[in-house]
Amino acid sequence: xxxxxxxxxxxxxxxxxxxxxxxxxxxxxxxxxxxxxxxxxxxxxxxxxxxxxxxxxxxxxxxxxxxxxxxxxxxxxxxxxxxxxxxxxxxxxxxxxxxxxxxxxxxxxxxxxxxxxxxxxxxxxxxxxxxxxxxxxxxxxxxxxxxxxxxxxxxxxxxxxxxxxxxxxxxxxxxxxxxxxxxxxxxxxxxxxxxxxxxxxxxxxxxxxxxxxxxxxxxxxxxxxxxxxxxxxxxxxxxxxxxxxxxxxxxxxxxxxxxxxxxxxxxxxxxxxxxxxxxxxxxxxxxxxxxxxxxxxxxxxxxxxxxxxxxxxxxxxxxxxxxxxxxxxxxxxxxxxxxxxxxxxxxxxxxxxxxxxxxxxxxxxxxxxxxxxxxxxxxxxxxxxxxxxxxxxxxxxxxxxxxxxxxxxxxxxxxxxxxx
Length: 420
Prior knowledge:
Keywords: Cytoplasm, SH3 domain. By secondary structure, this protein is α+β, with helices and mostly antiparallel strands.
């Protein structure tokens, strides 16, 4: 059984080799002009169109794959960019949730666009090109069968023209010619019908491919445009939020190491001199002198005498001192008591107010802790020589209104505040 199978394969191989030699010999004779060649101009034109169609389709497939790779690259780049924005976006900024949602929807949109291109355009492209290898193989087979047919035809003709015709050989050659012609005509007829149809199908394929791609692109860019507009709106609101907030202040000015200044807390004996009139605290001589450090003692004495005379005349028949609480116009009322004239004098000093625009954490014991929005009453320094550039002395308005004293006054950076 093994020997029989080996013999069959050997015989088939010998037959194939004989066919190849006969075809090669026929081709040589045709090229030398010693044997005519069957021509079919219409079929040759169809073959030329087929080759052109196959080359164009292969190029389209290659370019479509490159486009899909570019879409995937753009998707990855877009995702990294959106993730970067989402990571940088601080929670207290306007539209944090919107930015996260836009990033997620953008990623989904890219994925959907890429998947549709792969599932439709690319699959259709692969199916379209899959038919070309089989048709190409049958065209090559037809060429071989045509050569076999021409060879059988020439062999039959040569036997007929021989000097001593051998009818048996002629009959056998005629039989081989019939078989060769039948095989050739079968495949030739199939291709003559199929090639023109395949050539015409390219138009419909191109239309469907690019129409679907155009539709996907239109929907993708339309949806992406909406997301981009939403992101632009969020960025616009964020910029408005930024402009509405005051810019962060510069660092507080550097305070040089000052010479020791008097304590801001009044001495115990001074605190005991604070008097109450109608439940309102008044400030003693020591506080008055601290506030009016820029005045010489002589000038202060003159003013006290003058004001004592004015008060004694104006309030001669009054049993209590009129009240002048702190107004929004930044008037600080300080009552000074003088034993020389025996009258209580209301001393009014004009100071300006400032509003804290930013938080300030005190770094020294004599500094004033500030929160954005605090109103501070600015006071004169105890010793003008100790005043540092860019720093003010003051007490919070809230403390004054509640306690009516200056026990918690302190220094603070001027560039953290705005004058009212």
